[in-house]
Amino acid sequence: MRVTIIGAGYVGLTTGACLSELGHDVICVDIDKERIARLKAGVFPFREAGLDEIMIRNMACRRLRFSDHLASAVRGRDIVMVAVGTPKGVRGEADLAFVRQAAQSFAPFLSPRTVVTLKSTVAVGTAREVREIIAEERGALDFWVTSNPEFLREGSAVSDFLTPDRIVIGADDRDAGERLIKLYRPLLDRGVPLVETGTADAELIKYAANAFLALKIGFTNDVADLCEVTEGDINSVAKGIGLDPRIGTAFLKPGPGYGGSCFPKDTEAFAWIGRALNAPQPLIEALIARNDYRKRHIAERVLKEIAGISGAQVAVLGAAFKANTDDVRESAALQIVPALQKANVGVKMFDPWASGNAAPLLPSATWAEDPYDAAQGADLLLILTEWEMFRSLDPARLAEALRRPVVFDCRNLFDPEQMALYGFRYVSLGRANVP
Ligand code: NAD
Q1: Can you give the residue ranges of the UDP-glucose/GDP-mannose dehydrogenase C-terminal domain (predicted)?
Q2: Residue 28 annotated to the active site
């Protein structure tokens, strides 16, 4: 099928590359002309496992192309997919300005019987609103607007797209839904479950899914706090509850509070939808406040560990909001590092991928060459991201590099007993601190 993707960002590019891999003819469009020029030259804007190979392969056979010429990219296509950003608005709502602008800009070029589909995460009712925007411009044109939310995770985006848990197709018209089913036929034939629904339900599914996942994280963090005061172990508790299939083992790890480009903004947007439609979502409202508190509380706990040390230095490992991505949007580091600096603590950081993205946002931090360099002369080592390379750090070398052997591990990467043997004070989450 001939597919045009509007918005060559994280989701748009991954989707475009993967759809071309499935055999479709894909053009990715972006208003950022520089981004398009770089993509044409094979320079990709972010790091994601496996994506480069797919892009290079499909660009070579011209199944994947990039354009900043909207008219020719939109005319005569079977599907126009909108994957522009929907950032947090001033009241927590999803800001739909990019979606509206995109619809207005491509509407003049839509060919008859094109299916427009919204991949962006959007408020309930947006597909209908986009329909009206296009209809206003094109009057009698026969076209459809559908919803096809995306569930990929950064760090495993390609495999998530190509082997998804489910595909959700929201269409208020049977023919339009059939077109999207044809688009995903190669995946559906491999047994991927399909959820066919109306556009409003599809829009809500995305928010409800992210809100529920964020709730699991928030709940686990609260249980971890309980484990700490009962000298328990969150790993055992998580296993004990997670083996109940109604709960499931995924997402039951404590951490410094969820971040990233989706959970913070999607939980806020979900709560806003509830308020706007007079169907309040108090669980999610509480979760948002609690997650914010979590990050502040971690900073307070770190400060307590180094209280009284004048000119204290903290080594921070991890700026990305999670491992295997260079994305730092709403990462724990962006909240915790400034809180430490506000208390006059010097911060030296290391992240294997995300330092380039984080450095401009944390201008007062210095950046290390590697984790041991970050630890050199520090009074405490704070681990914020669960990078695999941090798990395999040599505790003896860390102990040697640090001025005081204190590790505050927000990802539970080490065994407390072993860390005690190396002479560390080792604080982790949801487990007894040693000593
Ligand atoms: P992004 O910021 O990485 O990319 C958006 C792109 O759209 C940018 O390159 C921007 O220049 C472009 N754009 C904006 N307006 C445009 C226009 N009028 N015409 C053409 N291009 C335009 O955003 P993202 O992370 O890819 O997210 C896109 C959407 O997908 C959001 O709604 C997000 O919530 C949702 N989503 C994101 C993820 C994720 O993990 N990042 C996962 C699932 C869903």
Answers
A1: 315-416
A2: no
Q: What is the pTM of this model?
A: 0.95
Q: Report whether pLDDT(434) > 90.
A: no
**Number of structural domains, the chain?**
2
pLDDT tens-place string over residues 66-90: 999 999 999 999 999 999 999 999 9
Verify whether ligand 1 is closer than 6 Å to residue 84 (CB atom).
yes
Compare 139 and 3 and report the one with higher pLDDT: 3
Residues 268 and 152 in one domain: no
Residue holding tokens 């430490």?
340
State the chain's mean pLDDT as an integer: 97
**How confident is residue 369, by pLDDT bands cut at 50, 70 and 90?**
very high
The answer to whether position 81 is within a domain reads yes
> For residue range 246-257, what is the model confidence (pLDDT) as tens digits?
999 999 999 999
Query: Is 138 a member of any domain?
Result: yes
Answer for the pair 172, 195: CB distance below 8 angstroms, yes or no: no
Q: For position 140, what pLDDT does the model report?
A: 87
CA–CA separation, 196 vs 198, rounded Å?
A: 7
Q: Is 379 in the pocket of ligand 1 (CB under 6 A)?
A: no
Q: How close is the Cα of 11 to the center of ligand 1, in Å? A: 6
Q: Are residues 318 and 400 in the same domain?
A: yes
- 251 and 155 share one domain: no
| Any domain includes 403 | yes
Looking at ligand 1, which atom is closest to the CA of residue 157? 40
The tens digit of pLDDT for each residue in 289-298 reads 999 999 999 9
For the stretch 128-155, pLDDT in tens is 999 999 999 998 899 999 999 999 999 9
Q: Do 113 and 62 share a structural domain?
A: yes
Write out the residue range of the structural domain in which residue 327 sits.
216-435
Q: Confirm whether 208 is domain-assigned.
A: no
Query: Amino acid letter at 360?
Result: P
Predicted local confidence at residue 433, as pLDDT:
86
CA of 82 to the centre of ligand 1 (A): 9
Helices 199-229 + 263-276 axis angle, to 10: 120
CA 209 to chain centre: 13
Shared domain for 351 and 422, answered yes or no, is yes
The residue nearest atom 23 of ligand 1, judged by CA position, is 85
Rounded to the nearest angstrom, the distance between the alpha carbon of 424 and the centre of ligand 1 is: 43
Are residues 257 and 388 located together in one domain of the fold?
yes
| Ligand 1 atom index nearest CA of 102 | 18
Based on the fold, state whether residues 152 and 64 are members of the same structural domain: yes
Same domain, 168 and 267: no
Closest CA to 133 of 172, 107, 94: 107
Long-range residue pairs from 245-252, CB within 8 A, at least 24 positions apart, any chain = 250/216, 251/213, 251/216, 251/217, 251/220, 252/216, 252/220
- Residue from 18, 28, 227, 262 carrying the catalytic annotation: 262
Residue nearest to atom 25 of ligand 1 (CA): 10
